[in-house]
Amino acid sequence: MLRATLLLLTLATVLPALADKPKVWIYTDTSDKTIPGGNSEGTLNDPDDISAMAGYLLMASEFDTLGIVVASTHRGEHRGTPDQSEWAERYFGGAYRHDLPALNREIGGYPENIRFQESCIKPTAERFDPKKDYRSLKDYDTVQALLDAVEGQSDAVNVLCWGSLTEPAIAVSHCLATDRRDLLGKMRFIAHWTDSPHHQGSPEKPEDVANCREDAAACRYMKQRAKAGDIVYHECGAIGQHGIVSGSPKGREYFDRFRTSRLGTVFVEGKYVHNCVDHSDAATYWTLLGGWGVNLNDIRPDGSNPPEVELANEAKFEGSSRRIHDELLRRSRAASAD
């Protein structure tokens, strides 16, 4: 145990420092919410990721976005659905391109283009198998794309995990099997709610949460590799839901102010429940910015999420939630400036 801890501390120490703009790769299960499904929203995938993505795009001037993989899900119902990268290009990309001129005029620093790719596991509904040999990535183009993006970087790449851990687990397994620890050493995995001792899960079974049950083998594998010191894995737990979202302003009077811009409208209409916007996965990227309640160094790098740490980080995000939402609103208004 001591050896694993020392290995992890060494990895965290030698991992490249954050650049001026954190480099980001996103894996999200988000998809077109007009595709009917059996969840409480009547959609195939929880549309909270839609709101989180709109918020990310409003904040995109603060990040170096290397890639975004959508529909990273193994729900069988998705196999025959249309190409979700085309949907994302229209839905998110269209709103972003519409608002881009005003955002760059009023704020500046927004990239001209942000790329969306459909996940390689969406058409196959494949789940990670720890016994499988992933040396070849010929069937996993969006895993290969991540590693290609990491290959030439001198700064850390922050891999944000908003749902299934199947693709990150395949990437880690491949790197270990092919002795590419140099690539693992350039990545930080930052996961939303794949563990919680307080919400859905319990102190006895913190992994009993939806994002971990969804692909339990991948979740278990990533936590094991983090505990062993092979990877850096920051587990946010439920601090997005029970910090940023719970602490947010409430009511249509506030959130209707976002509707002056295309991205602001997508943010509000993604998932509006309980009198506010649910964009809980956003915790993964607000931790990268500093000064918004929770910083990445407040979350352990070994995949663990002790009860006292989760509660402390919930409180920090809850206390900063109004400022976070006001910043998003400021940018949404800038996006519609004449």
From TrEMBL:
<feature type="domain" description="Cellulose-binding Sde182 nucleoside hydrolase-like">
    <location>
        <begin position="45"/>
        <end position="178"/>
    </location>
</feature>
<dbReference type="InterPro" id="IPR011483">
    <property type="entry name" value="Sde182_NH-like"/>
</dbReference>
<dbReference type="InterPro" id="IPR036452">
    <property type="entry name" value="Ribo_hydro-like"/>
</dbReference>
<dbReference type="Pfam" id="PF07632">
    <property type="entry name" value="Sde182_NH-like"/>
</dbReference>
<protein>
    <recommendedName>
        <fullName>Cellulose-binding Sde182 nucleoside hydrolase-like domain-containing protein</fullName>
    </recommendedName>
</protein>
<dbReference type="GO" id="GO:0016799">
    <property type="term" value="F:hydrolase activity, hydrolyzing N-glycosyl compounds"/>
</dbReference>
<keyword id="KW-0732">Signal</keyword>
<feature type="signal peptide">
    <location>
        <begin position="1"/>
        <end position="19"/>
    </location>
</feature>
